[in-house]
């Protein structure tokens, strides 16, 4: 989106920058880096948060609520797809003829002049971006980074580093990753999602193909995923160096010997060595191998990278422990696609079983995100929740969408194959429902991209009261 001044090529051209929706994970991260680079920053968000307080403490002018009066002494306005055309600040910016840029265009400006590494994929990109950032930090690189979540190690989702490497999560949801021009790209997988934007699955695949066309040097791609693997031949034809990873026999970096180990996993990268992660799940062993392949391509040694990965303790809302009470462990996950639910529920099973002696069950609490996604994937969501011993399904978190007649969490609940499921449209009742079901040794996993994340602490409190 631009009001007629042409796309910027560096952060130096942005002038005084205002963010509409500055409290979002991606938006606040970009704002943080701009502040550190000495750019005057202002912004607004619909509600107050610690993120807003932190930005104020760094020198940003931040307002709660959206109003025309907030657009003052501004040269560039940054928006995300979540900002609707009816937003008064956006309307005022256009009236004043200000430069209006999408968040991804601002990210591209920040990456200009750095060795850009973009991590893309329908699933796993936040975790993989986070792993790569921590591993490079341990290798002494001090990269700049923008992640769609918060690193547990730093408590931040973005920061300005002193090195020449810039690691960024590339968002395909609205096609905005096509504004980036990275030197190196990782593609974890390519599946149908965000069909409210793309319309049909082939359009998603076509978008990733266009993304690869924007990569200048190296593509690191998962050989296990058919959608990602389809990018290999055209990337090579374009002249890119292609590095494959995964469990597939022909992968350049092949993962073998994956062994769940409590809240972690041990695995081997053939020809290089064995690694131990402090996060669970087979999928995370594969994600970590993408990091190994990328870091070695940058010239770092395997031992240093393995040490960095061992120090990775996760990202917020990515199988994040919220608390333990009464022998029950409560975790929270951002999973909001059937493939993501299935991966996290398998990981939860590994944690519940532990060293093999565990007998705990897995209780899934899932909040569907978007009416369109619920309608498209109701059957797949139901099948994924079948991996849990019990499931509680909330109503749809609409986010940017208006309700659709006949589309609710019930569509998913009625498709859970084992039938041990409760549809709970009243969110306030969910902690009580969970506490009544959970018993010592169980794993409770709240899942979804909406406000379901607020339930974990409430469940822990009820479990403590139960004793």
Structure description:
This protein is of the alpha/beta class and 467 residues long. The protein has helices at residues 25-36, 50-57, 88-95, 103-111, 125-138, 195-198, 201-213, 226-229, 232-238, 282-297, 302-310, 338-353, 371-385, 410-413, 430-437, 455-466; strands at residues 17-20, 41-45, 61-64, 76-79, 99-102, 115-120, 144-146, 158-159, 165-169, 184-187, 218-222, 241-246, 253-260, 265-269, 273-277, 320-325, 328-333, 362-366, 390-393, 421-423, 443-447. The strands form 3 sheets. The chain has a 10-stranded mixed sheet, with helices on both faces. The protein has a 6-stranded mixed sheet with strand order 16-17-21-18-19-20. Strands 3-2-1-4-5 form a 5-stranded parallel sheet, sandwiched between helices. Helix 5 (125-138) crosses helix 11 (302-310). The longest helix is centred in the middle third of the chain and has 16 residues, at 282-297. Residues 1-6 have low confidence and may be disordered.
């Amino acid at each position: 989106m631009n009001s007629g001044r042409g796309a910027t090529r560096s952060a130096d051209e942005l002038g005084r920058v205002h963010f509409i929706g500055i409290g979002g994970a991606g938006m606040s991260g970009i704002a943080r880096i701009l502040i550190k680079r000495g750019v005057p920053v202002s912004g607004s968000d619909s509600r107050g948060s610690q993120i807003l307080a932190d930005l104020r403490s760094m020198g940003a002018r931040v307002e709660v609520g959206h109003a025309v009066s907030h657009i003052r002494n501004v040269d560039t306005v940054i928006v995300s797809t979540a900002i609707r055309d009816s937003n008064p600040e956006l309307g005022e910016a256009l009236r004043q003829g200000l430069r209006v840029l999408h968040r991804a265009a601002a990210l591209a400006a920040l990456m200009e002049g750095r060795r850009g590494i973009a991590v893309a994929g329908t699933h796993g990109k936040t975790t993989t971006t986070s792993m790569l950032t921590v591993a490079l930090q341990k290798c002494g690189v001090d990269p700049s980074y923008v992640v769609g979540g918060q690193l547990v190690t730093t408590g931040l989702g973005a920061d300005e580093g002193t090195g020449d490497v810039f690691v960024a999560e590339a968002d395909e949801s609205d096609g905005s990753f096509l504004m980036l021009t990275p030197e190196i790209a990782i593609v974890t997988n390519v599946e149908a999602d965000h069909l409210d934007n793309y319309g049909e699955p082939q359009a998603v695949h076509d978008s990733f193909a266009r993304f690869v066309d924007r990569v200048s040097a190296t593509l690191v791609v998962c050989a296990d995923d058919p959608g990602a693997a389809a990018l290999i031949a055209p990337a090579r034809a374009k002249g890119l160096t292609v590095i494959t990873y995964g469990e597939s026999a022909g992968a350049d970096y092949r993962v073998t010997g994956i062994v769940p180990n409590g809240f972690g996993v041990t695995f081997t990268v053939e020809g290089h060595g064995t690694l131990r992660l402090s996060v669970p799940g087979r999928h995370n062993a594969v994600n970590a191998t993408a990091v190994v392949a990328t870091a070695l391509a940058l010239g770092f040694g395997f031992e240093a990278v393995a040490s960095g990965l061992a120090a990775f303790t996760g990202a917020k809302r990515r199988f994040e422990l919220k608390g333990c009470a009464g022998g029950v462990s409560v975790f929270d996950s951002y999973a909001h696609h059937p493939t993501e639910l299935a991966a996290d529920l398998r990981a939860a099973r590994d944690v519940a079983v532990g060293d093999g002696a565990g007998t705990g069950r897995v209780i899934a609490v899932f909040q569907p995100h978007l009416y369109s996604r619920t309608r498209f994937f109701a059957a797949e969501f139901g099948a994924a929740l079948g991996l849990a011993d019990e499931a509680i399904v909330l109503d749809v978190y609409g986010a940017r969408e208006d309700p659709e007649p006949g589309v609710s969490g019930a569509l998913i609940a009625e498709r859970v194959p084992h039938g041990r499921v409760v549809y709970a449209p009243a969110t306030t009742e969910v902690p009580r429902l969970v506490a009544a079901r959970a018993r010592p040794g169980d794993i409770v996993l709240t899942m979804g991209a909406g406000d379901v994340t607020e339930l974990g602490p409430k469940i822990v409190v009820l479990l403590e009261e139960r004793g």
